[in-house]
Amino acid sequence: MPILLIKHTHIHTFMHTCLNIKSAKQRELNTYRTINAINKEIKEPERFKAIIVCFDNEGCLMYSQNKRKLFFYPKEIEGDFVLENGGKRVSSTITTLQASLTYALAHKRVTDDIEKEIAIGIKNGLVAMRHLVDIGFTKEGEYRYDIVAKIIKKTPPPDGENDNDYLYPVDCEIPNTIEAIEENSFSFMNETLKNKSNEVLFDICKDIVTYGRSSKMEAKVIPFLRYKKLVTYDKYEITQLRNVHNSVRSYINDKTKAKPLSICVFGAPGSGKSFTVKQITQDVDKNGKTETIHFNLSQLKGPEELRQVFHQIRDVGLKGDLPIAFFDEFDTKTEGSGTFSWLKHFLAPMEDGVFIDNGRSHIIGRAIFIFAGGTYDSAERFRKDAFTDNDRGSKARDFASRVEANIDIFGPNDRKCIYNDGELKNENKGFKNVSECYKLANKLRSTNTNKKTKNLPSTDDPVKAAYVGTCPFKHEFCYEKYTFRLRRATLLRSILETILEQEQDSKIPVTDEVLKAFIYVDEYLNGARSLQAIVQTSKIVKGKPFSVPCINTSNLNLFADKTFAEILNGEIDDPVNTETAEI
Fold first, then answer.
1. Both 287 and 392 in a single domain?
2. Do 29 and 142 sit in the same domain of this protein?
3. Which of 162-166, 450-454, 508-512 is predicted least confidently?
4. Residue 82 clears pLDDT 70, i.e. is over it
5. Beta strands in 155-300 (DSSP E)
6. 494 CB-contact burial (10 Å; exposed 0-12 / middle 13-18 / buried 19+)
7. For 111, what's the count of Cα atoms within 13 Å in the CB-facing half-sphere?
8. ∠ CA 281-285-289 to the nearest 5 degrees?
9. Which domain holds residue 326?
10. pLDDT tens-digit profile of 348-365?
11. Of 140, 186, 272, 377, which alpha carbon lies 20 to 30 A from 528's?
12. pLDDT, tens digit, for every residue of 303-359?
């Protein structure tokens, strides 16, 4: 990991070394963890004009005397650029970055602002490095001086915009304190949007729905992850999805792995569990050598029928394809049995890749097992009950220990807080977001002398505090405020593409009245299925705007609460302006 040290007003010395950071190698999974690890290693950054940590051609972390910034590409923040280019990297990354920084400091484009000059040097250096990956580092044995010189002389465009020739990185300030990242109070999205009006969030949603993959405003929501039609902006979803994606890719590519790969997917009904798994596997399986088969365990009478399920999985493998077995409602009961009664029947197939039928052992072979929860909507809840289950015969603990990755699918509704700490859990049951948690914290501080509640953080403005992303109770799901609205926008776009049979980068016009109803409705009664049902029952014509008359209002109460119709018909205040006033 190269480090550049800049002293005074010019480059005084460069040092090329490696930080002793194990978690930095996990940058492909979690950028936040890597930043936190580097923060702990960088000592006395104020001694230098700047300290620059370079992540090859994917980004840079800059420590200056006044601030800390991360420069990166929103679509490729955690290793995607290298993967998409077949693992290619610029062999002399530091040389190109040095040249760009040297030019920036020697030819000042911003008078007496060294930090801005360094930022220009970093951005141009990243562009040059990535361009060399595309065209080749050398030509006829010579370094591409002409190409690098052309790029480092440019003035980068504002964040979220590009010039006609190159894709530029964006930058985001990060906290000066380690605790802010450790305690989940920081995210790139909150930092980007916290000082902007709610109209900006709505404009981003509109751009995503209208233009899909060609959206220019999407890059202002940082970072985001895309696998086929699956898009997420939530830092926790990104980490989990990338973990699963990497596990599936590694398993498919490593033919020496003989036993099945086991993954659990949790989420409320209609949150999109099947859709998520499908998009991940399609993104990994470039050659179409996988076959997905679905089984709903709640429809099986007992373990004896499970043997036939394993035979079906085995048959797919014998054909030469990799079976992806989707076990829906794996956490339900078998007939006449208790909770987790299915789990023990999966232990041998998961661990050894075999199952028993009529006293004979059968090899399943290579396979991917996807276990989708029907009772539990989060991995944390499932694991807690599994590891405290009093029924030892269920083998719930053994099952949970064999699962190699988990995903929590949040769906189009706002996430609810989870607080299970003794005396306070009942008071906070069912709260939907962090602003309500702050209201509770204020109440408890003033009415309860218990030491735990007395030390809770307080705020005079709970709603505004929610937009910082910090929950006073550090609840499991109380983090980024904006993501569920963006999730609704991407889901709506995906459904419209399917129904209208349009490309992912085509234009689909939607009126503001319709879009506001989809984005700002309080709740979809059955998650993503409800959003999809509203679109499917509408009369939409390809090439014409999706407007209010298109929507079938006679059955809206089956899919969404009353706020959808109220927003659609203008019966309540504009939700965009209302939320702006609250902030």
1. yes
2. yes
3. 450-454
4. no
5. 170-173, 225-227, 230-232, 261-267, 290-296
6. buried
7. 0
8. 115
9. 253-406
10. 999 999 999 988 999 999
11. 186
12. 889 999 999 999 999 999 999 999 999 988 766 566 788 899 999 999 999 999 988
Q: Is there a contact between 220 and 201 (Cβ–Cβ < 8 Å)?
A: no
Of 428, 429, 293, 313, the C-alpha closest to 367 is 313
- Stated pTM of the model: 0.79
- Do residues 515 and 491 lie in contact, with contact meaning Cβ atoms separated by under 8 Å? no
- Per-residue CA distances from 498 to 209, 484, 492, 503 (Å): 13, 21, 10, 9
Same domain, yes or no: 133 and 39: yes
Q: If you average pLDDT over residues 529-534, what whole number do you get?
A: 96
- Dihedral Cα 109, 111, 115, 118, nearest 10 deg: 20
Q: What is the mean pLDDT of residues 1-18?
A: 54
Q: How would you class 134 by CB atoms within 10 Å of its CB: exposed for 0-12, middle for 13-18, buried for 19 or more?
A: exposed
pLDDT band at 179 (very low <50, low <70, confident <90, very high): low
For 39-48, the pLDDT digits (tens) are 877 877 778 8
* Residue 268 within a domain: yes
Same domain as 120, residue 10: yes
Overall number of domains in the chain: 4
Say which range, 142-151, 186-195, 360-369, has the weakest mean pLDDT: 186-195
Residues 6+ apart with CB under 8 A from 89: 56, 57, 82, 133
Residues 153 and 18 in one domain: yes
Mode of pairing for the β-strands spanning 3-6 and 13-15? antiparallel
Mean pLDDT of 93-119: 84
Up-side HSE of residue 399: CA atoms within 13 Å toward CB? 27
Express the helix, strand and coil content of the chain in percent, nearest 5 each. 45, 15, 40
> Is residue 109 one of the residues assigned to a domain?
yes
